[in-house]
Amino acid sequence: MTKANVWNLAFARTAAIHLKRMSSTAESEVQYIFSISGEPIAFRQSLGKHPGVVFLPGLMSNMEGTKATALERYCREIGHSYVRFDYRGHGMSGGKSEECTIGMRKEDVLTILDNVAKGPQILVGSSLGGWVMLLVAMARPGQIKGLLGVASAVDFLCRHYDRLPDSSKKDVESTGKWVIPSQYSPNEPYVLDLNVIQEARKYILPEGEVYPVHCPVRLIHGMQDKDVPYQVSLELVKRLASSDVRVTLIKDGTHRLSDELNVQLLTGTLGCLIKHLNL
Q1: What is the distance, to the nearest Å, from the Cα of residue 67 to the centroid of all Cα atoms in its chain?
Q2: Could you say which of 99, 159, 187, 216 has the lowest number of CB atoms within 10 Å?
Q3: What is the mean pLDDT of each run of 10 residues along the chain (279 residues)?
Q4: Which are the contacts of 145, defined by CB distance < 8 A and separation ≥ 6?
């Protein structure tokens, strides 16, 4: 059976119930909603108070990561609603990961906000998700009440690509594929279509302009981050319209920040932000 047939069978069974309410099991169940282009978006939802929390994964991450699951447990403990999901082409969602553009990621979050995570929300963006959360906050200023970025990779794809030697860029342009080695999965490099890089440039804010984001923003970044330098978060502070922005730097922190102590810092920061909003 082909992958397409497997998807068709799975979604034929779930299409009628993809927005049903969650049961009170220890872990929220997987549900599906359909993207603008028709691919299924997998998500897990826990119901609770507002503001709700939506987790935005990084470049090739999915909703089953350490931070995503830890935040769900925390939100259940404090009684707030929570949604984690997979972008198109990632995890249990349909599509191809190498074709998932910044614009598609933004669309997927908006689909979740408009159909699943209704009402006031806090977005928690990890790595590339930290860039996407800014774009979403600008598109839904009335709904997004706060942002929490972890190693926010603002303009990351373009920054990383532009640092490549000319010979490597020529290879990418000739093949149409950018193969990115991963220190986390040495035998499974990331692969992106050249179109993903070209499309990402549309979302780069011109130098001197600020992101018209006015809600409270909290940023956490490791100073030993070799993927996204912590200076990216410091630059972002200057480019946010909000006056309520706080940055936490972790001297020995690397990119993922998914060990126990840093996860505690993440959940604690989210808890303080929720109390600060006092909705």
Answers
A1: 11
A2: 187
A3: 45 40 60 94 97 96 95 97 97 93 97 97 97 98 98 92 92 92 74 94 92 98 96 97 98 95 97 91
A4: 51, 120, 121, 122, 215, 216, 277, 279
